[in-house]
Amino acid sequence: MSSSQPFEQSSPTAGGDATKRSKFTYRQLAHLALSSVTCPLRVIAHIDLDAFYAQCEMVRLGLPEDKPLAVQQWQSLIAVNYPARTFGISRMLTAKEARKLCPDAILQHVATWKEGDVKWAYHKDASANMATHKVSLDPYRLESRKILACMKGCLPPDLQRVEKAGIDEVFLDLSAQVHSILLEHYPELSSPPKDLSEFLPLPPTTVLDWKADALVDLDVSETEDDDPDWDDVAILLGSEIVRDVRAAVREQLKYTCSGGIAHNKMLSKLGSAHRKPNQQTVIRNRAIQQFLSDFKFTKIRNLGGKLGTQIVDTFETDTVSGLLEVPIERLKQKLGDETGSWVYQTIRGIDQSEVNSRTQIKSMLSAKSFRPSINTREQASRWLRIFVGDIYSRLVEEGVLENKRRPKTINLHFRHGGQTKSRQMPIPLGKTIDETILFDLASKLLGQIILEGNVWPCANLSLSVAGFEDGITGNMGIGGFLLKGDEAKAARENDYRPENGASDRPEKRQQTEHGARSIQGFFSKQPGTDESEKLEGSHGEIGEIGDWPFDEEDNITATHQIHAPQSGFKNASITSYFCKQCNETFESDNSFQSHNDWHFAKDLHDEDRRLSHTPQPRPKPGPGKKKNKGSKKDAAKSEKGQSKLSFG
Ligand code: CTP
Ligand code: CA
Ligand code: CA
């Protein structure tokens, strides 16, 4: 926090009538200290790095800031810096098209793992070798971590609440910190009356100094002459904090980012995207309606995907102002009670979802689509080595060596002829996970799939670990001796379990399942619990890659919502392809296919996540069936159910 006062001091009466009170009570002020989601004074910020991957490359290469640069993945562009954008270069162009627009632009290919290598590197020939290389986004993850640490370092340790919402963005709940600053600056606030429902005095200020912040215009009913109240002061203090955080990131790590400061997550996220790059936007409570009415609601967090499309189709409008006309009863009737109310509130700027600082990774996935397909076990094994290396390096960062966190299961998905075969097995406890263990398990899973026969050619292979648990730190070895029952058996035999007993996952089946999912499926949890955001919204509305344990191999365009693989795609013309979910057009069959694969893999991943988070009822022995403790075969059967239960 900078020491300068963000507002001009004046006497308590300067605003006019001294008997006038704030519209906020002492109780509400107290709630600010608790970061209560219902507190009307709440201050939330969203900070998003500008052209993130591109900036990472600029910083890594030590280039001058005005140098046009785009990050290339095969022939596509996945990030474009702002100088390059002035030449008309965008993510939608191919590298070749970008080169034409700006021959001087640097087109930096992402780092890749080369088939057979144990570490990723920046390879000069990567773009021409899609068949033998796999994209690594590790360099960006590492930078992301540094930036997060820097941001956290700027905030008081005991009052901070930081949610990493993607690889290049965070939400900050600044309420508690703002509360403490308020009390420091206005001692009169720290001696509350007995009756906490009494209204606060008005802030002793007339003019707030918003510095260089982009201020959103006030609602029609409000004027700048109206006296500011404590919510204005709180948001102003929040914007000061964000300015300092951004300055620290810039100074210490050279990155620019943009910020949004508002009353809740949804508004702050819209705010950070409002003016880019390197700016921050403040949306005061008195400006919310004005701000939102200009928006298409499909730009709002969680309204970008299928739900948004559904609403546009149902109510024949895509603007917030159009949808404001729809009475809540009709929204509920068409969208279901829960989603209807959620939409009703959201377009009115109401969002009580909390900033969730528990952002522990739940699974990690590494994958590769093969074009051309691969045909032998040896080829598949070579990729498994790379996947294992990729996952292992992320596990190490998660603290697997110290046994802080460890995954419980390992999964292999194998795509052949439009079908995906999946196998998973528990990762034996008792030993620190290393690459050899992971590779052995992965090879066993591969062996199981191959044994079925008729599996080649393989179009996509993905390996994931899931069911992360806090490990026992300090006495790793002991865990192995303490194992009982299932776990011990799993550890001894590396037993495996086909998922749900059904080994194949035809895409068709998936499509039907997803297609049939009700709209509430997208909001299976109450907005506010944040679990649904974790699941699908971590990519935000503009499709950024979240702290996505998911493979980024084909991440040319990330999605916003879970949806059926393929079903959302249409050919827009003979030569271009359109992804309805992402609202993006693909010029080449290849990039579209990659994109399609991405959706497919994400879907699998989401499904895995869903499986690992939905509590499964323990299968009860049916009538007349006795629990059989006898044969080994039966014991293995009962284990399946149990390992399912403990999964996730
Ligand atoms: N990204 C991607 N595919 C997408 C969206 C994002 O690979 N469809 C990657 C980009 O490379 C990007 C990072 O995720 O650098 C963050 O995405 P986002 O914040 O949406 O865009 P930026 O490139 O950071 O640009 P902006 O300045 O608009 O935030
Ligand atoms: Ca960004
Ligand atoms: Ca982002």
Question: How are the secondary structure elements laid out?
Answer:
Layout: E1 7-9, E2 21-25, H1 26-33, E3 44-49, H2 52-61, E4 69-73, E5 76-80, H3 82-85, H4 95-101, E6 106-109, E7 112-114, E8 133-135, H5 138-154, E9 162-166, E10 169-173, H6 175-185, E11 199-201, E12 205-208, E13 214-215, H7 230-253, E14 257-262, H8 265-274, E15 280-282, H9 288-293, H10 306-315, H11 320-324, H12 328-335, H13 337-346, E16 363-374, H14 377-397, E17 405-406, E18 409-416, E19 419-426, H15 435-451, E20 458-466, E21 469-470, H16 476-482, H17 485-493, E22 497-498, E23 504-506, H18 507-516, H19 531-536, E24 569-571, E25 577-579, E26 584-586, H20 589-613, H21 632-646
Parallel strand pairs: 4-6, 13-15, 14-15
Antiparallel strand pairs: 1-12, 2-11, 3-10, 3-14, 4-5, 7-8, 9-10, 16-20, 17-21, 18-19, 18-20, 19-22, 19-23, 24-25, 25-26
The protein binds cytidine-5'-triphosphate and calcium ion (CA) (2 copies).
**Amino-to-carboxy terminus distance:** 40 Å
Structural Rg:
27 Å
Q: What's the helix count?
A: 21
| Record field, number of beta strands | 26
The amount of helix comes to: 25-40%
Structural class: alpha+beta
Major β-sheet profile: 6 strands, mixed
Within the largest sheet, what's the order of strands? 9-10-3-14-15-13
Q: For this entry, what is the oligomeric state of its chains?
A: single chain
Unreliable segments of 5+ consecutive residues? 8-16, 473-576, 611-648
Mean of pLDDT: 76
Bound molecules: cytidine-5'-triphosphate, calcium ion
- What is the percentage of strand-forming residues? 15-25%
* Gross geometry: globular
